[in-house]
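Predict the assembly for these two chains.
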Amino acid sequence: MTDVRALAQAARIASRELACLDTSRKNEFLIDLAREISSREGEILAANAEDVGAARAAGLDEAKLARLALTPKSLAQLSDGVRQIAALPDPVGAVVKDYEVPSGLRVKRIRSPLGVICMIYEARPGVTIDAFALCFKAGNACLLKGGKEAARSNALLASLARGVLARHKLPEAATTSITGLDREAMRDLLALDEFIDLVIPRGGHELIRFVAQNSRIPTIQHYQGVCHVFVEASADLDLAVRICVNAKTSAPATCNAAECVLVDTRVASAFVPRLVRALGDAGVEVRGDEEVILLSGGGPHVRAATPDDFGREFLSLTLAMRVVDGLDEAIAHIHRYSSGHTEAILTRDQAVADAFCTRVQSSCVLVNASTRFNDGYQLGLGAEIGISTSRLHAFGPMGLEELTIQRFVVRGEGQTR
Amino acid sequence: MTDVRALAQAARIASRELACLDTSRKNEFLIDLAREISSREGEILAANAEDVGAARAAGLDEAKLARLALTPKSLAQLSDGVRQIAALPDPVGAVVKDYEVPSGLRVKRIRSPLGVICMIYEARPGVTIDAFALCFKAGNACLLKGGKEAARSNALLASLARGVLARHKLPEAATTSITGLDREAMRDLLALDEFIDLVIPRGGHELIRFVAQNSRIPTIQHYQGVCHVFVEASADLDLAVRICVNAKTSAPATCNAAECVLVDTRVASAFVPRLVRALGDAGVEVRGDEEVILLSGGGPHVRAATPDDFGREFLSLTLAMRVVDGLDEAIAHIHRYSSGHTEAILTRDQAVADAFCTRVQSSCVLVNASTRFNDGYQLGLGAEIGISTSRLHAFGPMGLEELTIQRFVVRGEGQTR
């Protein structure tokens, strides 16, 4: 049986050394890690092919198989991603504030690693490298509990990373891949608050609930996006059609895809038929309220929405649509149904846009842009470990800075109280 | 029975209005709240006297009775504290970052309220006002679950606050005092993650463990301080005596009081006898390792430390002391025994001070100053809701900024992906 306690304790010890590493040593390691991934492509793909074969034989569905499979292209991206992380600024040691207080003490708030981070994720084996690379650059050790379907791929990628760590005389316990835990052992892992500072669950509803209910360690959830687009009365309707179609169709299975469009009643008769037609052309099924059905004139791509269709994360080419009576009703709908992930307003009225941005407190609120931009790369973070839906520590995309905490470092000349 | 679900839901609804309040309205309310506390002093003291009488009859110990009791002086301080919070800058709406990304999107990171905060605390009734005032200024609604000993005081203070809220046409559910929950009802409260964003437990070991083990909502623990002072070989020994005595004796029951002094072996023979004498004069009992016993020559205030005395939060005029072989051994001791709250080094060697500040990752690390300065007022935060020992979101004193989160507000001109 895996001794998770011993693994977590080793990670804690490693984290103390990682917290003090020079930026240049971290970057040299990351560049070498990227090189190693490229040079061992054949071996990685072979291990992954075994995982995929076994998962297919076990009847895993096609969507999950697609997430599980590595390709020469996805490996090259993985390797590039690690190089990009090497090129990003090091958040550790940054002096965020620096001031003197009346007692004469000089106070600095310094960005410092969180410590030990445990990622719990499902099929994607690439996470074994990219989550580690991000945690490492931010000075953290990580425990990576991946899905059992990816066991061979994860084991190989983790051992490859540990080999490079050893070559750089860095603690191998900087990354630990954990597999083969039953629910009981998972509970044991989630109780190790003396060694682990943060748990990040990424995956389906069931996984996230299990972690939230059983973790004694703080968690940041990367949970569902029930994202709304509100087409306000003053919107540019050409722009609105483009954005609504893009927000739904450019990557329907992602958490920042739109799941519901709200249309201001003052433009509904002009806009709804156009949007429904454009969505139909793009293969989207619309689940509309009565007014949408009426205005669109129906058709094969239009169905009456059930109450369940609002607040639902379709993750597919299906979109809920409702006509609302202006800003207040749009916001009331969002307050009731949104998951707080991403909301967009399309409008030419600056005051309305401002009100929307203040009153809608989602992690990302956009004006005249697609919800798909709520993403670490698109918002300039350089990379992301995921998009947090927890209103604590990090809300929205989590990049390197979000993998750190601020400490107080204080210098005096003998001050007492 | 208290319907905690309904109370939490009402807090969630109120939080949406609080998130959008103008600074001036918030400050006018707080100033009026401070006035109300002063003008109703007699009534508050009478309710509190009933609590104190009942608690004394029930056999509550003197330390807890002291925390429970309000006085004209402590009420005046409470009222002043609320006025000070009114005078602090409003963290909500502050633009922390503002930049353009290659797609042409303009990205702002804007400080925003957390939402609904639940404080769970023990006897101190003042928290009912000061935690609310801090949460309110940062745009949050709060649920306040105080100790049953303070039930009358808390109920009166909360109803007073709600009266002032109503007068200002603000949502009364901005603050809710909850009492009379058994363990089962507490578990129900701690499962309401759809309405509550953060739980802050403040109190004894048992309370904090119960919350950590049962909460499905993120928690920030305000837990124990096992704080160390390391007297390094180059330290100014006069300064070191003053600081060690101050760190232990100026408020021994607080979490930032020193619990253990580590003395570099190179100055041990010169320093230990002086320090032990000074501590004895201040009424402190020293629990020393063999070398401390030997060097100090014993005496009525000196006892041999048991293994349990290291890593222990005495919260009294008792101090552990150990001789260590330089910086590495001091840091190894701290890594093993510290609670990560506060550590100080006394040294004249800049390089050693820098190494200590980097390698010791506690929430506050001080050079040549007393551990007692790890405090929101002393470190310039203006006020604090407590000192976090969680390495997430806020680590160290939590002021107004730490009661907020950063959201992304993004403006475009029709961008799609």
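The first strand of chain B starts at residue 95 and ends at 100. Chain B has 14 helices and 16 strands.
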